[in-house]
Amino acid sequence: MYETLPPAGPARPSAEEANQAIRHLVETRVDDEWPAAAYEFLLGEWAAATREEVGTAAHR
User: Would you place residue 2 in the very low, low, confident or very high pLDDT band (cuts 50, 70, 90)?
Assistant: First the structure.
């Protein structure tokens, strides 16, 4: 069985980094406008990082 390599490119942020970015986005929004696209992107990054961290911890 072959193991797939992670895609090349910028490293995904840690779950904590993504969480901090989400908090910053929410706290600094302008005119109570909700930045839906940015929030959805960061939420996806947080979810992926969380899955990766849980998977890594499970293999220890």
Answer: very low
